[in-house]
Every structure is written in C-alpha cells, then in structure tokens.
Design goal:
Helix content: over 70%
Strand content: under 5%
Order of helices and strands: HHHHHHEEHHHHHHHH
Strand order of the largest sheet: 1-2
Oligomer: single chain
Largest sheet: 2 strands, antiparallel
Number of helices: 14
Radius of gyration: 21 Å
Distance between the termini: 32 Å
Structural class: mainly alpha
C-alpha cells in the first residue's frame, strides 16, 4: 500500500490557502474564477504529468516548454502549407514532433552517458536559439479556423451575466492525466519505470532495458509537450515563439511539491495535480490581492526547499516518537 503522506499534507495546505483566499478576496471562490483557473492550468498540468514520468524514471527535463514552442511553430507551418488540416492531423503532427524531440534527449542521455539535466539544459538553449533564429521572433496569426475556434465542454451564465466556461484544452488535459495514470499504475512498463528510477543498477540486472526506459520516459514527455503546444495555440489564438519560455521551472516546482522525488522511483498523479493547483492557486490569489509577482517566486522557492528537505521525513514515525516521549 502506497504512502500518501505528502499528498495529504499538500491537500490540507491547499485547502487552507483556498479558505483564506475566499475570505481575503471574495472573487476567488466564484465559478468564473475557478473555471478560469482550470483553463489557465491545463497546459501546465499536461506538461506536469509528462515530467512526472521522467522524474519517476530518475531523470529530469527542463526543455519541454521550449520543445512545445518548436512543435507548434513547425506544425503551424506544415498545416498551413497543407491547406489547414484538422484536429486529427494537429494531434498527429504535434504528438509526433514532440516524441521526436523527446527521443533526441533520450538518445543524447543514453548514447553519451550524460546526466539528463545537462542534456536538457543544452537542448533547451539549442531549441530556443534555433527557433528564434529561423523565425526571427515573428508570430503566426493566420491559423486554421479549427485550431483557433473556442470549443466549450462546459458553459454557465451567472445571474450577473458573467459566463463561466471550460474549454477543450481542459478536456484534453483530463485525457492526458488519465493516460499517464494508466501508463504508470496499470502497465508493466510503469512498474519498470519505477524500478529503474529507484535502483537503475538493480533494474538492469533484473532485465530492464535502460535505453527503452529512457526512451519511453522522455518520449512520453515529448508527446505531452507536443499536445500542450497544440492546446496553447487554441488558448491564445496565435503562435508566439517565446511565449512559453520560462514556464518550465513553475511546472518542475509543482511536480516536486507533489511528492515526486528528484532521485527517481517516487511520484503520483494525485500529487502532481495537487502540486500544479497549489502553484496556480497561489499565483491567482496573489494577483487578486494585488501582491507583487516577485512574492510568488519567493513563495514557490521557499515551498520547494521545504518540500525537498522534508521529503524523507516520516511524519507518522515522528508523531509516534513524540507520543512515546510524552508518556515517558
């Protein structure tokens, strides 16, 4: 039976923050704000479940946000040259391009025996530099109608005339979350990923193919990056080469806060969701309160330090020892 101490602790903290923001900023708990929060978190959560797979396998990737930018730009050029395309072709192109970029990371890591953070720092800079060089930083506005049309999966008009809406990217995000949960918890591949991340040498001796595990982990991250890029264009209605630059650290923070271990072998979908929502709710709440955005970075930095430094503390054991000492 898995230990959900981290997830429970984060859920309690998140609930307390939501309660406090509901009192301090009454507009926080309204349906329009909640649906807006979910819409704005869709891309980050798609990235987060992909990154969770990489972290479970003992790796780390910080190139995924830039990879999404590369994917959406190439896909836009390809689809426009074909006359527009459709959602099926969009998923096919973006998913395939994302997987190729992910497999490139895996090949460099395994082929040259370089640690993943070094490789992904290199590809992060290479992807972004090449993208800005070939695009000149120019946006693409003339996109196919299917890609920019807003598709609602939920609509509600309040008594004050304000609409609350959930758009297609939220539905796609739910699909990505479910697919990642199935991969990690209901397949033999998922069990091998956990074993490889927890003890690479032991997994290798047990017959786990290291190259395949790295390919699956980074390929899945690439797939999620491609899908996230597709969704981002649907949200903003244009392709902006540098729009996603810098968002990777917020996602990494969210996944680590959710209990994923940087050393590999540990992490849950529930923790991943809670981590993303913690970051999103904190940022949204500070915006509503008119607090400087720099405060958000300080809070997230402090939260990461606390999460990492307490990740190996067994709170149940600590409480048991405290009770024993009290009785003595």
């Amino acid at each position: 039976m898995r230990n959900y101490t981290v997830e429970l602790r984060l859920a309690v903290v998140l609930a307390l923050i939501c309660a406090g923001l509901s009192l301090a900023a009454p507009q926080f708990a309204t349906l329009p704000n909640i649906t807006s929060l979910l819409n704005n978190s869709a891309v980050n959560l798609i990235w987060a479940v992909g990154l969770l797979v990489v972290l479970v396998a003992g790796g780390i990737d910080i190139s995924f946000a830039v990879a999404s930018s590369v994917v959406q730009y190439i896909a836009a050029k390809l689809l426009i040259s074909m006359g527009g395309g459709n959602w099926l072709l969009g998923f096919l192109f973006c998913g395939s391009l994302g997987i190729l970029l992910g497999l490139l990371n895996a090949w460099l890591i395994h082929g040259f025996r370089i640690i993943s953070i070094v490789v992904t720092i290199a590809t992060f800079n290479a992807f972004f530099g090449l993208l800005m060089f070939f695009t000149g930083g120019r946006n693409i506005y003339n996109l196919p109608d299917w890609w920019t049309a807003r598709i609602f999966i939920f609509e509600h008009e309040g008594a004050n005339g304000v609409w609350s809406e959930l758009t297609l990217p939220v539905g796609i995000m739910i699909g990505c979350v479910v697919a990642t949960w199935v991969l990690l918890r209901r397949t033999n591949i998922g069990r091998q990923l956990f074993a490889f991340g927890d003890n690479p040498e032991g997994a290798r001796r047990a017959g786990v193919n290291i190259a395949v595990m790295q390919g699956i982990a980074f390929g899945w991250m690439g797939l999620m990056a491609g899908i996230a890029g597709l969704c981002q264009v649907n949200i903003v209605k244009e392709v902006v080469p540098n729009a996603l630059y810098g968002r990777e650290l917020d996602v990494l923070a969210a996944v680590v806060l959710g209990g994923a271990r940087l050393g590999g072998g540990k992490g849950t979908i529930l923790g991943c969701i809670l981590g993303v929502m913690f970051v999103a709710v904190t940022q949204n709440g500070l915006n509503l309160l008119g607090v400087s955005p720099f405060a958000f970075q300080m809070i997230i930095g402090a939260a990461i330090l606390i999460a990492i430094s307490t990740s190996n503390i067994d709170l149940t054991r600590v409480l048991r020892l405290s009770k024993t000492e009290a009785r003595a």
